[in-house]
Amino acid sequence: MTDSAKRVLSVGIDLGTSRSSISTSAGERHVVHSYVGWPVDMVARKVLKKSVLVGEEALHNRSMLDLHRPLEEGLIKEGSAKDEAAVAELLKHLLALAGAVKGKGVDSVRAVVGVPAKALRVNKQSLRKAVAPLVDSLIIVSEPFAVAYGLEALLHAMIVDIGASTADFCIMRGRIPADEDQRTLTLAGDWLDDQLAVQIQERYPDARFSVHMVREWKERFSFVGEAKDRVHVVAPVGGKPTSIDITDPVRIACEALVPPIVETMVDLLSRCDPDFQDQVRNNIVLSGGTALIGGLGARVQKELADMGGGRVRVVKDPVFVGSDGGLAIALDASDQEWERLAV
Amino acid sequence: MSTKSERLKRRLVRELVVENLELIGAVPVRPRPRPRRFLPAFKVAALVFLPAAVFASSWVLRTPTTGAEEPSPRRVVAVLDPAPEEPVRSAVALEAPRPVPADVFPLAVRRVILDAGHGGHNLGTKTPSGLLEKEITLDIALRLREALSADPFEVLLTRDDDRFVNLHDRASWANDQRGDIFVSIHVNWLEGSRASGVETYYLGAAEDSFGSELASRENLDSGHTMAEMRTLLEGIYADLRQDKSRELAAAIHTALYGALRRVNPELIDRGVKTAPFLVLVDTEMPAVLAEVAALSSETEATMLARPLYRQFIAEALATGIRRYAARPGSEGPSAPFLRKESAR
């Protein structure tokens, strides 16, 4: 087979703390929970009939697994071989889901992987090590940049990517973002889970619930502002399944996220060139899973109104916007550039 | 799509590719701009010497400059000292430093530096009953020195009595002694229900807010902010020393947890972690910081009060050091080296 006849597949991957997504040039798009688990013993292995479980399946069978969420704070946990292995398994799973496996109808895989803005060189190198056996060439990119590229918001825009563990803020000035263009807050989805758990526990001291239950409630019901309906969930109270009203805890926890987000936006805006501040202010994009909190975009815009105004939009498809952006970069890089970036 | 937008995207992809090539060492890392604080001093110097430079430019400055161009520091130096014609070292001309594969130099461990955390007025953590971290760490360090006395290591201590030594001095001294490994001994204080356990750190970014807080606390004497340290650390994280430190941390932690769990079955394994402790930043050898117990745990505080438990800890640390020294790829402890104990 000649080079020109090679079947090359380009992929964009958004490696997230909570969920990871993949988009491919063949039109495949998949998202999985970023959980990887290994059966704890022989019995578990026999029951599960698998040596490793990934995503939803791992989460559901967590009682039988040594469960890892390898990207806490968005970074591979340095020094933990198990977490490095978990990242490799997660990537392998994603690529397999999307049919991006060499030898199976594909001769070459080119991947662009998005990482949090604050990822240091060493984290990127750990990631490179994990991806190397699975792809032919690799570009690592900061996640807000991938989002901006996908949305073509590359000039005079602010991207706020609110994920599970971090909220990454990035001003796009038509260049690769430098340190001074970016901020990272560790107040994001996981922090919100903690706040929600505290709020619920305060109201219902006898209720028992796990972090996974809280996370699920948050994902289904989170909102800021006025509640459209009361939120009721079932949790064991004194061993008995009981319906509890968590409307106020959800609202209070979610609204606690607004002030730090707005403050960080204003701080970054104040550092922009005054000539372009208005343009940036009116081109603010919220992305990431936590941006799906009901009413968040409107609420942030309202808060900004008191500080000079601004226009905030929430991306329609926050789950895939990062991986789609990665894919766009992958397709725009030349063959020659990909050759230089072979792993 | 407009051509302008296409051009912008093309340029950004090109920059991204270069950034990634830098990451893998395929192209030299672009020099970063100097910190802003140097600029005013330079500008003052330029203003003072610019007239002289212009006056002498016909013979001093070999490269013509335009009036709009700001003189570079090199040119100012040439005006001040025109006689010697030193070759100019250009960052661009230098080949980029690349990580050295760990197996290129099979390294022997000869000199072990032990660092008993805190001391003097710096008490470290303490229990309501008055048990002090600075005393526990010193006791364990002395026991560890004794435990290693039969091994072919030279063991040195950053302090062997109750006195304050600042973090930078500890690291500098260890560097001056040309230590092969550096083991800093600390005792933890943990908040929350799981307020116990052992953990071992080597240099890297803090993995969680606890690691950040702990490093900030332990780095109080450094004079650096975490933000300043981040820049400092970027260049260090990727080097060979980090791989070695990770191996050392893993060897020590495995030995420590394995041994202590036998006498304290409820001990929590908090794992091998990374954090930017100053003693790990400033030392030039594989270095780890072991939090060998947590005074916040009543069980562990009670056990730490017993000499036998501290001896267990010392023995476990010694086992970890021996395992690291004997690992594949190492020459092991250097047998002909003088077997000697010494203290600072």
What does it look like?
- The complex is a heterodimer of chains A (343) and B (344).
- The model of chain A has no long low-confidence stretch (mean pLDDT 87).
- Helix content of chain A is 38%, strand content 23%.
- Chain A is flat and about 60 Å long.
- In chain A, α3 packs across α4, α6 (189-203) packs antiparallel against α8 and α9 (258-270) packs across α11 (296-305).
- By secondary structure, chain A is an alpha/beta fold.
- Chain B is α/β, with parallel strands linked by helices and 344 residues long.
- Chain B contains eleven helices and seven strands.
- Chain B has helices spanning 3-23, 38-60, 73-80, 133-147, 167-176, 209-218, 226-237, 240-263, 278-282, 298-304, 307-325; strands at 111-116, 154-157, 181-188, 198-202, 269-274, 287-294, 340-341.
- Chain B has a seven-stranded mixed beta sheet with strand order 5-4-6-3-1-2-7.
- In chain B, α4 (133-147) links the parallel β1 and β2.
- In chain B, α2 (38-60) crosses α3 (73-80).
- The longest helix of chain B is centred in the last third of the chain and has 24 residues, at 240-263.
- Chain B is globular.
- Classes of the chains: A alpha/beta (343), B alpha/beta (344).
- The interface between A and B is medium-sized, with 33 and 36 residues.
Summarize the entry for a quick read:
The complex is a heterodimer of chains A (343) and B (344). Chain A has 343 residues and is an alpha/beta fold.
